[in-house]
Design a protein that fits this description.
Blueprint lengths: L5 H4 L1 E14 L2 E14 L6 E9 L3 E11 L4 E6 L5 E6 L5 E6 L5
Antiparallel strand pairs: 1-2, 1-4, 3-4, 5-6, 6-7
Organism: Pararge aegeria
Protein name: Muscle-specific protein 300
Length: 106
C-alpha cells in the first residue's frame, strides 16, 4: 500500500533572512538569522522585503526582513536616516553576504 501526503505537495519552502540592530546605552548589537518558512504553492518566485526603523535619543532599533523563493539571487540595500547601510546579497548558488556599514562623524 502506498500513500501520499497531499498537504506536503501543496507547499513550498522559502527562506527568511532577518537582520536586527539594537543600540541601547551606547552598546550596539547586530543579530542575523536565517530560517526556512513554508507557504502554499503558488508557482512563481517571490521576494518580499520589510523594514522597520525606530530611533529616539536613548535607543535605536532597526529590523530588515527578507523572505524569498529558493533558489533566487538578489541584492537589496537599506539606508537608514543616520546613513548606516545594510546590504544583503544572495548569489544564485545560495551564498549569502550581509554587510553593515556605519558612517562615523567626528
Amino acid at each position: 500500500v502506498q500513500t501520499s501526503d497531499q498537504k506536503s505537495l501543496d507547499k513550498e519552502i522559502l527562506e527568511n533572512i532577518q537582520v536586527k540592530q539594537f543600540i541601547s546605552d551606547g552598546h550596539e548589537t547586530i543579530e542575523i538569522a536565517s530560517r526556512p518558512v513554508t507557504r502554499h504553492l503558488i508557482g512563481e518566485q517571490s521576494l518580499f522585503v520589510d523594514a522597520h526603523y525606530k530611533d529616539d535619543n536613548m535607543h535605536k532599533d532597526t529590523e530588515l526582513n527578507i523572505t524569498h523563493s529558493l533558489p533566487q539571487s538578489f541584492e537589496t540595500i537599506m539606508v537608514e536616516p543616520d546613513e548606516t547601510t545594510t546590504e544583503v546579497v544572495v548569489d544564485a548558488d545560495g551564498t549569502k553576504r550581509i554587510i553593515v556599514k556605519k558612517v562615523r562623524r567626528t
